[in-house]
Amino acid sequence: MKVRGANLGNWLVLEKWMGESPLSFARAEDDRGLIDEFPPEELALALERHRATYITEFDFVWMAQSGIDLVRIPVPYYLFGSDHHTPCIEHLDHAFEWAERWGLKILVDLHTVPLSQNAFDNGGYMGLCAWAQDPVRIDNTVDLLEQIARRYAGKAALWGIEALNEPASQEVLDRNLNIFGAEFPERAARSEVIPRDVLLGFYDRVYQRLRPIVGPDVALVFHDQFDLASWDELLPASRYENIVIDTHMYLNFSEWGFSRFDVPEYQARIAEFAEQIRAAAQHHQVLVGEWCLGNHSPLKRELDEEGKKDFYRALSDAQLDAWDEGIGGCYWSYRADDPNRKDWDLRTCVAKGWIDLKRNREEETPDPLATLLSGLF
């Protein structure tokens, strides 16, 4: 069965645009800036308060009841703590407990690394991409992934481990440096793209180190560096068992050439996504690790609630079908608190009928609460 997934964005890895986190009340725009702005004790308290309340067991119950079966959890490189960061490993432990209780699977996604892999805000250092310049940092990252693997190997909820989120291509890095370079010129001057051979060598090391630990049934997931087709001949199935290529497909970043911004124009672009996945799936398992309903169509402002529901539902149905050309997809994000971006908030999308996560399921999804209660009485 194809996976229906959700990302727990802005929980253990903060993103200011998503709201409701210590970054919401800070001058800082990224994780590094928080460290510079606040005393360690104050920041540690704020982070712990956020982590303990932003996602709870109730959210796992909601996801299970709504048709989610895979939870992609972005984690930072300081999961176990560092010189400047407080650890958050106990919250990931809780997530595994909740997932096992409610019948969900987890994909642990290493979302940040020291000095960043992409110059995005979600990499912790806006305007900086310098992780791969020092082999020691790469070594330490492989060690960290092994530590994660050893901690959760054998857990029923472990579906997979993703080696690194969104390592930037040259095109993506250039775009990010154009956006953030003026604000962070010293960072931009230090930035270099991750060479493909370096990234491929890192992925190979992760596979060789983690596969004996987690066994053949746990997926090892590798991001496509924003170029899905280029992986067809790399990491061949004859040498790499149960690997998944992660690609991120966002409508709001794919509207080039649009003139009408209506449903048929979006559906045509989604059909292009489907064809890309279909081609790549001849070589690898393909997961759309991030997608959403966010878009820039001006037509939305003129629609009433029913019209908006029809508009979004047409886009979500087309995308769910497209992701099923691979092994499925994970919505970004389960929770997004900006009132102007509710089409990024999965809870709102489901509540308003914009998305039906149980659509085209071969069998009815059991009610996890009823299942639990039946085992108690």
Description:
The protein is α/β, with parallel strands linked by helices. Helices cover 40% and strands 12% of the residues. The protein contains twelve helices and eight strands. The protein has an eight-stranded parallel barrel with strand order 1-2-3-4-5-6-7-8, surrounded by four helices. Helix 9 (263-280) links the parallel strand 6 and strand 7 (285-291). Helix 3 (57-66) runs parallel beside helix 4 (89-102), helix 5 (135-152) packs parallel to helix 8 (196-214) and helix 9 packs parallel to helix 10. The longest helix is centred in the middle third of the chain and has 19 residues, at 196-214. The protein is globular, with a radius of gyration of 20 Å.
SS-based structural class?
Answer: alpha/beta
Residue-averaged pLDDT: 95
Helix content: 40-55%
SSE order in H/E notation? EHHHEHEHEHHHEEHEHEHH
Q: So what's the overall shape?
A: globular
Number of strands: 8
Side-by-side strand order of the widest sheet: 1-2-3-4-5-6-7-8
β content, as a range? 5-15%
Q: What key attributes describe this structure?
A:
12 helices; eight-stranded parallel β-barrel; alpha/beta; single chain; 377 residues; 8 strands
Offer a quick outline of the entry.
The protein is built from twelve helices and eight strands. By secondary structure, the protein is α/β, with parallel strands linked by helices. α3 runs parallel beside α4, α5 (135-152) runs parallel beside α8 (196-214) and α9 runs parallel beside α10.
